Amino acid sequence: MGDGIKKIGVLFLLAAALGIVILGLGPLRDRLTDLNMTLIVDWLRSLGLIAVLIGGGLIILQAFLPIFPFIGLVTANVLVFGLVGGFFINWTSSVLASILMFYLARSTGREWAEKKLSRYPKWTRINDFLQANGFKSILTLRLFPIIPPVALNLLSGISKVGARSYVAATSLGKIPAILLQSMIGNDLLSFSENKTRILLLAVGFGLVLFIGMKVVRKKMKLS
């Protein structure tokens, strides 16, 4: 009974996100295709409160159907709702998308998830790493993404990692990257005035990621 409720809940949330987004999918896609961030922001602002749902819904949808550039969606939310509000929407939606994918793999899509993961020949070793210490392992792989986030979501779902450990580690581990992207997005429209800060943020974060990923790869013997 519990598994049935989880399956229904996952499918309902996915359907709700898709339904919310479909209202503005066409015009937003046109604006993103034109790369005119001013038009995107003006359009979202014209929607009122529903813009929160559409902005968050698009982040969730992008995780399953990457038809929009993630940084474009992150930037739009920050420019419409401010750095703090935009970051919260981006982070919450990104975490929710990961949780939905986790439960989808665990409750209804084990065979589908294993098929997707078959393209990653070292996923068995990563699975062993996850199960050795669920929270710490997932947090490490969120902070230093040596494998794609989608693969981590699916692998966690079919592994024996506890749901609570997954949610907690994912929530914490996504903060640095989402915060950095939100900060860069906040400065994009005034790039000429903020290019030094953007460059320093990107280089600094990239350096930390590079070193961290090297260490994690060596620890997991994936190099």
What's the SSE blueprint?
Elements: H1 2-22, H2 25-34, H3 37-45, H4 50-64, H5 70-107, H6 110-117, H7 123-132, H8 134-143, H9 149-158, H10 163-173, H11 175-188, H12 191-220
Overview of this protein structure:
The protein has 223 residues and is mostly helical. It has one domain (2-220). It contains twelve helices and no strands. The longest helix is centred in the middle third of the chain and has 38 residues, at 70-107. The protein is globular and about 45 Å long. Mean pLDDT is 77; it is low at 20-26 and 28-35.
The number of E-state strands comes to: 0
Q: Overall mean pLDDT score?
A: 77
Sheet of most strands: none
Task: Specify the structural class.
Answer: mainly alpha
How would the global form be characterised? globular
Beta fraction of the residues?
A: under 5%
Q: Are there runs of 5+ residues with pLDDT below 50, and where?
A: 20-26, 28-35
The end-to-end distance, rounded to whole angstroms, is: 43 Å
Order of helices and strands: HHHHHHHHHHHH
- Write down the Rg: 18 Å
